[in-house]
Amino acid sequence: MILRNVAFLLLFIISDTGFSQPVEKWDLKKCVDYAWLNNINIRQSILQKEMTKLDWQQSKSAQQPSANFNTNFVYSAGRNQDPTTFDLTTIGYLNNNHTLQASVDLFNWFSKKNTIAMRDYNMQAAIEGVEKAKNDLALNIAVAYLQILLAREQENLAKVKIEQTQSQLESTRKQVAAGKLPELNAVNLEAALSSDSSSLITAQTSAQQFLLQMKSLLNLDAAQQFDVVTPPVSLIPVENLADMQPEVVYQLAINSMPQQKMDELNIKSALKSVAVAKAAFYPTISLFGSLGAGFNNKSKEIKSVTPLNLPIGTVTVGATQYNVFPNTPFNSYEFGKIGYFDQLNQNFRQSIGIGISIPIANGGALKTNWQRSKLNVKQAELEKEKNSFTLKQDIYKAYYDAVAAVQQFNANKKSVSSSQVAYEYALKRYEVGLISTYDLITTQTTLQQAKSQLLYAQYDYVFKLKLLEFYKGQGLKL
Predict the structure, then answer these.
(1) Were 148 and a residue from 80, 143, 210, 417 both cysteine, which residue would form a disulfide, CB within 3.0 to 4.6 Å?
(2) Cβ count within 10 A of residue 478
(3) C-alpha 252: how far from its chain's center?
């Protein structure tokens, strides 16, 4: 019963992929290229870069004169000043004013110039930030890729072990039927076969988990069909370890890695920020001017003048009465409303001037900003020192790990060779009944563990060398 269940399970595991649709397999380069276009962290870093670019463009535009046009419609009542004639009036009226104002800084102690330079460095640092995000993502993808390859190799080992155990079980069954071996030997092999099947499922599950991790890095839907090219680890090209001396690799990395470039740019930006903060202590000289015009619906103008020579009284001379006329005639005026555009023309006004803004007292804000900007420089320098230290530590660690991995790999090759010989001798002795099933399974398990350790050491060595190649500026390739 156990044998039938195990056989059915094996048939399902091994043939499951045979009925599925073929899936396009991606190599490392395609994974990295796709992730650079679709990974959310990369897209966010690109947006951040665009924001710093907008800040830089705005600071350049700030050098240009500023101009504003204002207009309003106002109804006024009660005692107030007519905005067009500036006379006091108590008559309600509707007025419309237009004002165009412009100003430009003549000298501000290079505040705007240093602001442009500061934001230019920020933009360059953001560009390097995008490259750093890409590098970090590429490393994570390479790790996930190698983990998939290792899991697939362990899966293949598990399948080979199942085939061996299955073959042994069939041979044992025949000997049990012939009365040469006890039934217990077959039962022990069935239990071993069940355990081997569980190991295969574990290896397949690990491979699927690493594939899911890769999908997350690529921003692929978890349900999407996806697989990777699985080249044998022995065919993955690696540089000679002797050419990866850590100090040489570090000197190359310190001048080429995006993080180190970004740190340099952040320091330059912080220094310009100090200059901007210091300029705020000094006066700002600016040129300003304005144009304006207004309209009042109650404004009137003389439309016509009629001279009148009317008597201003009478005088009696003797018995005769005479009218008295003025020396000059009186003028009679006819008033009418002034047109809208006529009023704008009549009320047109201009002004121009030079202004000086001198900071005197501001609650210590300017001094605090200046001191804070100097501390930001020190902070940027410490950040650069920390990142350089971390980079050197990572490179040296990768180198010594690679040395240890190759030594472990060589030791494991001898272990696999010895375990293989031991297993072959144990198998022959088992076939003639000189050792128990337990001893055979123990020897087989020892061989399996040695092969797994050999694979792990080999992949660990490959990854550490790939990491050193990456720091050396050779990119990532499998």
Answers:
(1) 210
(2) 21
(3) 25
Q: Are the C-beta atoms of residues 56 and 122 closer than 8 Å to each other?
A: yes
CA distance 66 to 289: 11
- How far CA 77 is from CA of 74, 95, 179, in Å, comes to 10, 11, 124
Q: What is the mean pLDDT of each run of 10 residues along the chain (478 residues)?
A: 44 44 82 93 95 95 94 85 75 89 92 95 96 92 87 84 84 80 82 86 90 92 89 80 89 92 96 96 94 88 81 81 81 83 90 94 92 97 96 92 86 88 86 80 85 83 86 77
Dist CA 259 CA 245 (whole Å): 21
Quick one: how far is CA 63 from the chain centroid? 30
Q: Is 232 helix (H, G, I), strand (E, B) or coil?
A: coil
Q: Is 415 helix (H, G, I), strand (E, B) or coil?
A: helix
CB 257: neighbour CB atoms within 10 A?
21
Amino acid at 250: Y
For the entire predicted model, the pTM comes to 0.78
Q: With CA atoms as reference, report the closest residue to 122 among 272, 275, 260.
A: 272
For the chain, helix, strand, coil in percent to 5 are: 65, 15, 20
DSSP string, 178-192: TTSS-HHHHHHHHHH
Q: CA–CA separation, 58 vs 61, rounded Å?
A: 5
Pairs from 335-342 (Cβ < 8 Å, separation ≥ 24): 335/300, 335/301, 335/302, 335/303, 336/300, 336/301, 336/303, 337/297, 337/299, 337/300, 337/301, 338/299, 338/300, 338/301, 340/295
Cα gap 428→435, rounded to integer Å = 9
| 138, 155 contact by CB (below 8 A) | no
Residues 112/105, Cβ–Cβ less than 8 Å:
yes
- pLDDT (0 to 100) of residue 432: 79
Beta bridge pairs of residue 290: 101, 351
Residue 39 DSSP label: -
